[in-house]
């Protein structure tokens, strides 16, 4: 179990701080910053921002030529798709795809392009918000967010739902291979939260020698305040390499029609290369502003209660440990289960003695 240290000294005369800066934060942070940053990537093949003055602008591929068209099915119509919806922040709009009551093919509408070119390596990013924690009422209970398909081979890059079928419709998953099955699936999230904005990314690479496709996914719950990606994978399927060449593209619905996703989609990017985790993290930083440096930023001693409170920059959901020492040689663990809050977290030491002339504090970020 690895950790990083932050040390703080309290005495009757002075306060001293020693810290290690782990992250840097950007001066700007917004969807428009994210859009501008990804456009500088030479591997970017398609960019859908869903921004514009009219429907044509909003469905335009900002980088390639894969402009989108509405794809209604069942009793759904193109008017069921809503444009100029509020995005993750005020700098961008989103599009809302539709799923009606009944089975997976009864009513709804998504977006479609007849053909995008696929290569042996591909990466994607999606910013989206599900309307429901569960998709139900159908034979499969799936909502397709980003997908392609070549003959019988699936490129279901992001789906609300999971294998085996019928799905419970509560998960986020990525499936690549010769069937919608667990052997081809990377489970990204076990329980979707309605009305939460998520950033999900992924990369895949085809290995012709082993006849497999290996892919890795990353996720951050933007609404929850996540500023660090969670990595899922790498996962190697057993359903063969995904074909290259032309494939229909579905956004907010299947590549053909049906099984649409009920929710908002703010951004989608496709790259003709495997992108490193650090690139995805950089893109997430451009949305959130990144993290403040990991450091103790405040220490307060209460003479009356004889307690000391330590406050440090933190990440929501991360686990931290707090240690104390009188000589910085032998350390006494005060708590190893302090769960971080967004931006900052505090801990109060109730074991302060009047006889202590000085006391050092150390905060450790616990990594699994």
Could you explain how this protein is built, in words?
There is one protein chain. This protein has 368 residues and is mainly β. It has helices at residues 31-38, 55-58, 277-288; strands spanning 5-11, 15-18, 44-48, 69-74, 82-86, 93-99, 107-118, 121-130, 143-150, 153-160, 172-177, 185-189, 198-207, 212-221, 230-236, 245-251, 263-271, 296-302, 307-314, 319-325, 332-339, 343-349, 358-366. It folds into two domains: 5-23 and 292-366, Immunoglobulin-like (Sandwich), CATH 2.60.40; 31-288, Jelly Rolls (Sandwich), CATH 2.60.120.200. Helix 1 runs antiparallel to helix 3. The radius of gyration is 24 Å and the shape is elongated. A hairpin with an 8-residue loop joins strand 14 (212-221) and strand 15 (230-236). The longest helix is centred in the C-terminal third of the chain and has 12 residues, at 277-288. It contains three helices and 23 strands. Residues 9-27 have low confidence and may be disordered. The strands form three sheets. The protein has a 15-stranded antiparallel β-sheet that branches. A five-stranded antiparallel β-sheet has the order 2-1-23-20-21, with no helix packed on it.
């Amino acid at each position: 179990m690895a950790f990083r240290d932050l040390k703080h000294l309290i005495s009757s005369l002075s306060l001293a701080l020693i810290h290690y800066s782990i992250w840097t934060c950007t001066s700007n942070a917004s969807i428009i910053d994210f859009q501008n940053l990804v456009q500088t990537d030479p591997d970017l093949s398609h960019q859908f921002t869903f921004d514009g003055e009219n429907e044509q602008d909003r469905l335009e591929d900002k980088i390639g030529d894969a402009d989108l068209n509405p794809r209604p099915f069942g009793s759904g119509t193109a008017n069921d798709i809503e444009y100029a919806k509020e995005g993750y922040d005020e700098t961008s709009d989103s599009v809302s795809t539709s799923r009606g009551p009944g089975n997976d093919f009864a009513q709804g509408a998504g977006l479609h392009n007849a053909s995008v070119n696929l290569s042996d390596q591909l990466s994607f990013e999606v910013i989206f918000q599900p309307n429901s924690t569960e998709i139900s009422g159908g034979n499969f209970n799936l909502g397709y967010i980003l997908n392609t398909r070549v003959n019988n081979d699936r490129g279901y890059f992001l789906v609300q739902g999971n294998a085996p079928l019928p799905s419970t419709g509560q998960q986020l998953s990525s499936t690549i291979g010769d069937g919608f099955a667990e052997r081809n699936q990377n489970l990204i999230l076990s329980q979707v939260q309605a009305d939460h904005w998520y950033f999900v990314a992924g990369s895949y690479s085809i290995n012709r020698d082993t006849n497999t496709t290996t892919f890795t996914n990353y996720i951050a719950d933007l609404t929850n305040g996540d500023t660090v990606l969670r990595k899922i994978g790498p996962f190697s399927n057993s359903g063969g390499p995904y074909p290259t060449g032309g494939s229909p593209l579905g956004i907010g619905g299947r590549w053909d029609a049906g099984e649409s996703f009920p929710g908002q989609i703010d951004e989608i990017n496709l790259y003709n290369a495997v992108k490193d985790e650090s690139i995805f993290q950089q893109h997430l930083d451009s949305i959130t502003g990144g993290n403040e440096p990991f450091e103790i930023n405040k220490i307060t001693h209460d003479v009356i209660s004889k307690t000391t409170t330590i406050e440090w920059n933190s990440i929501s959901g991360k686990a931290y440990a707090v240690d104390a020492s009188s000589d910085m040689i032998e350390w006494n663990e005060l708590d190893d289960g302090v769960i971080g809050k967004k931006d900052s977290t505090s801990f109060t030491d109730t074991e302060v003695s009047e006889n202590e002339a000085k006391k050092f504090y150390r905060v450790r970020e616990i990594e699994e």
